[in-house]
TrEMBL record, chain A:
Protein name stated in the entry: Oligopeptide ABC transporter, permease protein
Transmembrane segments: 12-34, 122-146, 153-175, 232-253, 289-309
Compartments where found: Cell membrane
Domain of life assignment: Bacteria
GO cellular component, one term: plasma membrane
Xref: SUPFAM superfamilies: MetI-like
Major localization listed first in the record, in broad terms: membrane
Record flagged with keyword Transmembrane helix: yes
Species whose genome carries this gene: Leadbettera azotonutricia (strain ATCC BAA-888 / DSM 13862 / ZAS-9) (Treponema azotonutricium)
Membrane topology: Multi-pass membrane protein
Domain ABC transmembrane type-1 positions: 118-310
Keywords assigned by UniProt, alphabetized: Cell membrane, Membrane, Transmembrane, Transmembrane helix, Transport
Automatic annotation (TrEMBL), chain B:
Pfam families: BPD_transp_1 (PF00528)
Domain of life: Bacteria
Positions of the ABC transmembrane type-1 domain: 107-318
Gene3D superfamilies: MetI-like
Subcellular location, record wording: Cell membrane
Family to which the UniProt record says this protein belongs: Belongs to the binding-protein-dependent transport system permease family.
Swiss-Prot/TrEMBL keywords: Membrane, Transmembrane, Transmembrane helix, Transport
Membrane spanning residue stretches: 12-29, 76-95, 146-167, 260-279, 299-325
Major localization listed first in the record, in broad terms: membrane
Biological-process GO terms, alphabetical: transmembrane transport
UniProt name for this protein: Oligopeptide transport system permease protein appb
Length: 323, 337
């Protein structure tokens, strides 16, 4: 494992992709510590521009004006109250509403939403990737190692689901499931996207099945699970990791796609859903770029980094491509 | 020739099985919806009617009209039979318009946009991919990350960016609809044709760029693989001209890319069709979007069925072409069983 990590981090591509992902992970863990608002709460006006500088200036001027006005009114009130022998409590200052990335169609803070959405989308991607990899790995290993009729059967199923577009099944299943949380969405995506992994794992396993060390294990009377785990899995581990990374990336894209169609999770911000909102509230034609551009960039950046990591791994484990 | 015949027969058989399963899934999955979708239409149709017997009668009429009063297996047989006669049922939302009629009026927009874009993107992408693999160095270091980033942007996200910057800000292209909104579709009218072409540019450009990203990556990888092959080293030793070697490499790397063409036809469903929504392009993607919004289940499953069948046909054709031009494909397929 130590050797594995050492080799992997020699690839510049992998390191770059990995760093971007780590930065995004840090952002989604650290930002909510400072901004504890609910991302789906109304925090300002509709489609407010990103206004860090503007707000600080306005608050300086406005704050002074308001302060003197309050002081005047307060003076009068305190005088009046003092006549009746009462004392007024001191007024606290209003907190400054800061919208680094502006607000959306419902006045919700974009930055808080972006962070929350990225988190949800990543969870969906990871969940979908894990499920797809587990199913694909099991089917691929069984088909590749056992061969014969079982292989025929499993490969046929894999090939059939490879040709039927998984997106179509995704749409049909999502339509049929009436209550969709982001976990359901992740599970549905995972269950519909395993065939690629299964096929890749199967072809790798087939080539390993008759290696000497596997035959030796068989002769020694080791059980099938043991042979698969000890003699075959280590050889295909790098492929599985690569397939997993690709599955996570495509899971995030799938979430965005079906959320755009209005079939995504409900009551939670995801990157796809936020783009859907921006589209349905005409952010494009009113020039509210902050309502969709951060999400497009975030999705592209995550997918790009994951693909870059995959390509870096490929270069290490597929020496023929090493140029 | 016998091997080829066997290959064709086997492929045809498998595609028929796949088609059957696709039709079955398409029938079954929407019927798993809890509750009865017909009930809501009946509620709308009966309106202020309070007579329970009359409502019951209307309900029964609707149930038999949608064929929901029979047992599941009979429904399935009727469904299959109808599908083969081009009858996809009636739309809920645009009742009583037939689903096949609605799809027929939108599918040509999708085909007109997606097919040329995918083909152009495929050719340009493959050429660029081969070029980056061959030139290596700085060229590769600039283009590879660019292609990778291009292929990482979801098609509809790219559509957002393009509509905003190129259409809304720079006013270079019209950014929505397939033709000017005040026009009536009339293909004999030159003004209408011009308007269609004008609105075609931005979606086309977007789709082509998206396709280039993915295709060039695949071609680059295949070409690097081929460039390292023994026959290339041997040819170099023999002193064969570089141009000729590049042609060999390109031709050999090309074959798997034909499979890539089928794949991109399949993946056009996932991202590109949804990009239609951003452009308000009146194609299949937009139709499916409206159907989902209105919970128009017959129309949704009609759209998904058409999409599946299109992808199956595309894959079938590509499989046949691959089998015809590349004997290795036939061999490996037979080994796989």
């Amino acid at each position: 494992m130590g050797y594995f990590l050492k080799t992997v981090f020699k690839s510049g591509k992998f390191c770059f992709g990995f760093s971007v992902i780590v930065i995004i992970l840090l952002l989604i863990t650290i930002y909510p510590m400072f901004d504890t608002r609910d991302p789906l709460d109304m925090a300002g006006g509709f489609f407010e521009r990103p206004n860090m500088v503007e707000y600080i200036n306005r608050n300086k001027e406005g704050g002074q004006k308001a302060a003197s006005a309050v002081a005047e009114v307060d003076q009068a009130t305190t005088d009046l109250l003092a006549q009746f022998g009462m004392v007024m409590a001191e007024k606290k200052e209003q907190p400054i509403a800061l919208h680094i990335l502006g607000t959306d169609n419902f006045g919700r803070d974009m930055m808080a939403q972006l962070v929350a959405g990225t988190k949800t989308s990543l969870v969906i991607g990871l969940l979908a990737g894990t499920i797809a990899t587990l199913i694909g790995l099991t089917i691929g290993l069984l088909a590749g190692y056992l061969g014969g009729q079982i292989d025929n059967f499993l490969s046929s199923i894999t090939n059939i689901f490879l040709v039927i577009p998984s997106f179509v099944i995704l749409v049909l299943v999502s339509v049929s499931v009436s209550t969709r949380s982001f976990l359901t969405t992740g599970i549905i995506i995972g269950v519909t996207s395993w065939p690629w992994t299964a096929r890749a794992v199967r072809s790798q396993t087939t080539s390993l099945r008759n290696r000497d060390h596997v035959n030796l294990s068989k002769l020694s009377g080791h059980s099938m699970p043991r042979i698969i785990i000890k003699d075959i899995l280590p050889y295909i581990a790098s492929y599985v990791v690569m397939a997993f990374i690709l599955q996570v990336a495509s899971g995030i894209l799938s979430e965005a796609s079906i959320s755009m169609l209005g079939l995504g999770p409900r009551n939670v911000a995801t990157l796809g859903l936020m783009m859907n909102w921006a589209g349905s509230f005409n952010a494009l034609f009113n020039g509210n770029w902050w309502a969709f551009l951060p999400m497009v960039l975030m999705i592209s950046l995550i997918t790009f980094s994951l693909n870059l990591m995959n390509s870096g791994l490929d270069q290490i484990f597929n020496p023929q491509i090493r140029s | 020739m016998k091997g080829l015949q066997k290959y064709l027969l086997k492929k045809t058989g498998w595609y028929l099985v796949t088609l059957f399963i696709a039709v079955f899934l398409n029938f079954m999955l929407p019927r798993l919806i809890p509750g009865n979708p017909v009930a809501s239409i009946v509620a709308e149709a009966t309106g202020t009617l309070t007579d329970a017997a009359a409502i019951k009668k209307i309900y029964d009429t609707y149930m038999s009209m949608f064929g929901l009063d029979k047992p599941m297996w009979q429904q399935f047989l009727i469904y299959v039979n109808n599908v083969f006669h081009g009858n996809l049922g009636l739309s809920f939302y645009q009742f009583p318009r037939p689903v096949s009629d609605i799809i027929g009026s939108c599918i040509h927009w999708t085909l007109m946009l997606q097919l040329p874009a995918i083909l152009v993107g495929w050719f340009v992408g493959n050429a660029l991919g081969a070029l980056t693999a061959y030139r290596k160095g700085v060229f590769d270091r600039v283009f590879f990350p660019l292609f990778l980033f291009l292929s990482a942007i979801p098609a509809f996200g790219f559509a957002y960016v393009n509509v905003y910057f190129l259409s809304n800000q720079l006013k270079l292209f019209p950014g929505s609809l397939a033709y000017s909104f005040e026009m009536l579709p009339n293909w004999a009218n030159p003004g209408f044709l011009l308007s269609v072409l004008d609105h075609y540019r931005l979606p086309f450009l977007t789709m082509v760029l998206v396709a280039i990203g993915g295709q060039s990556l695949g071609m680059r990888e295949m070409s690097i693989y081929e460039l390292n092959a023994d026959y290339v080293k041997y040819s170099r030793l023999l002193g064969i001209k570089d141009k000729k070697i590049v042609w060999y490499v390109f031709r050999n790397a090309m074959l798997p890319q034909i499979n890539g063409l089928a794949l991109s036809l399949g993946s056009m469903i996932g991202g590109n069709l949804i990009a239609e929504i951003v452009f308000s392009y009146p194609g299949l993607g937009t139709t499916m979007f409206t159907a989902i919004r209105n919970q128009d289940f017959p129309l949704i499953s009609g759209c998904t069925l058409i999409i599946t069948v299109t992808v199956l046909i595309a894959n079938f054709v590509v499989d046949i072409i691959c089998g015809l031009i590349d004997p290795r494909v036939r061999m490996t397929q037979q080994e796989e069983g």
